């Protein structure tokens, strides 16, 4: 029962984060599934990708209605993203799971640091 409640809360938090911040819920889903529910990294990534589909559709519709979707950019970004995702998924299946976890964590730290640094610089410039 506690595991089900944890999974439901992770889903709600990921959905809110995806819609509010525009980030893939995987930024939240994967660490939460691994750290809180003990799901293996590869399984957490697969589950995250499935969970992201309906939340991404919902958030995309909301953002498109508000005029925040750049249609010309979508035309050239999407095909390349689909190809890269297929290649990345295949690669994730053959990389050692511990290495995959370290790569994922490193990416989160790097992106977080870059966002914080950019915001800090912008705040100083004001």
How would you describe this structure to a colleague?
The chain has 126 residues and is mostly helical. It has one domain. Helices cover 86% and strands 0% of the residues. It has 5 helices and no strands. The model has no long low-confidence stretch (mean pLDDT 88).
Structure, briefly:
The chain is mainly α and 126 residues long. It has helices at residues 2-21, 26-37, 41-65, 71-92, 97-125.
Highlighted features:
globular; 5 helices; 126 residues; 86% helix; mainly alpha
Helix and strand sequence? HHHHH
Q: For the terminal residues, how far apart are their CA atoms?
A: 50 Å
> What Rg is obtained from the alpha carbons, in whole angstroms?
16 Å
Main pleated sheet: none
Question: How much of the sequence is in beta strands?
Answer: under 5%
Arithmetic mean pLDDT: 88
Secondary structure: elements and pairs:
Layout: H1 2-21, H2 26-37, H3 41-65, H4 71-92, H5 97-125
